[in-house]
Amino acid sequence: MSERRVVITGLGALSPVGNDVPTNWTNIQAGKSGIAEITQFDATEYPSRIAGEVKDFDPETIVTKKDVRRYDRFSLFAMGASREAWKDAGLEDYQGDRSKVGTIIGVGIGGLRTLEDNHTALVEGGPRKLSPFLIPAMISNLAPGNVAIDLGLEGINYTITSACTSGTHAIGEACRLIKDGLQDIVVTGGTEAAIVPLGVGGFGRMRALSTRNDSPSEASRPFDKDRDGFVIGEGCGVLVLEEFEAAKARGAKIYAEVIGYGFSCDAYHITAPKEGGEGAVACMKMAIADSKLNPEQIAYINAHGTSTPINDPAETKAIKTVFGGYAKEGLMISSTKSMVGHLLGAAGGLEAVYLSLSVKEGIVPPTINLSTADEACDLDYVPNEARKKAVPYGMSNSFGFGGTNASIILGAI
Questions:
Q1: Cα 308 to the chain's mean position, in Å?
Q2: What percent of the chain lies above the pLDDT cut of 90?
């Protein structure tokens, strides 16, 4: 029996550049930045006062006004993007075996806003002031849990928490379940909503965030010599993965095929990659081997590209190691984080949505704010303007704290 193929039949997104996939894709192609001053709390005293916030998000479009208090923002994002993806896949009237339809959604941190608010209530008013919804609103697995309840998905249901690799790990593991015949359809991706005092303050104390507060739209500048840290973002990217023959039989629209998945660990440092990017090298090589492609067949990489002094050169070095001379002779690379910021556990999910559209439409998003490349970053990062070029195969990289790494490869179909 041949291995089952896995395709992407639905997409959903909420991000700093749009509250649905079409708006996201229009703005990403145009190189529009979603970074601005923080509005969700008073950030006056914080070193970094900028973020990629989801704008004009109305939770009452997801749940009733009465029920909003039951959910943290990251869960509401997951529900909203999953509904869009489910509808996009044409599955609203699905009549199949729902025990073989599940959801795996990556979450890096979870309900930090709920935790903050309830800790304040506890300190100021004692335990009777705690919300009865504190725990179910805060815990990370309520992103896929709430999606499953909302869509009636009775199959696999859990979250992956692997820092900034969470969304990519979720997609890779969902794909494996379908290939192995354990699930037929999986709603997967990543979600995050950590633009709160603890989140921004914590990353700020690590000196990980950009402090280019006077020009927010120019602050996220991957591979540029003047980058000074990442910009925190929020949002959600969701994909519907489905077994190919079933998708074809029902006439589903297919964006791309998931053909490769790789993972590794640096086993080196809690926050920094190895200087030579050895973990990233192992991860990308594994994904390429899984895809059964030659490296030269991959046209484009949606890079991790965080805009930090350490990550960008390490990823560049890793790409050179994996792709050899082709890294400079034809491979396109870009970081969409230049426009939306770093969505932490949601980054891999949203970037997989963008990669799916690159493969489907033959458009490579730009890396904006790339004025003068760092000397150690000397590849083709598609600076400042999108490029119309076929992407028969594309890769997405995600690397996270703890040295965790994941890559996926998508192919045109």
A1: 17
A2: 98
The pLDDT, as a whole number, for residue 1 is 54
Q: Single out the residue of 337, 353, 343, 348 nearest to residue 407, CA to CA.
A: 348
State the residue for tokens 């799916």.
356
Stretches in the chain below the pLDDT threshold 70: 1
Q: What residues are labeled active site? A: 164, 304, 342
CATH class of 262-411: alpha beta
* Domain 7-249 identical in fold to domain 262-411: yes
- Written as one string, the DSSP assignment of 155-214 is S-EEEE-BTBTHHHHHHHHHHHHHHTTS-SEEEEEEEE---SHHHHHHHHHTT-B---TT
Query: In CATH, what is the architecture of 7-249?
Result: 3-Layer(aba) Sandwich (3.40)
Give the pLDDT confidence score for residue 274 in this predicted structure. 84
The tens digit of pLDDT for each residue in 131-143 reads 999 999 999 999 9
Please report, as a single letter, which amino acid is at residue 26: T
Q: Per-domain residue ranges for the chain?
A: 7-249, 262-411
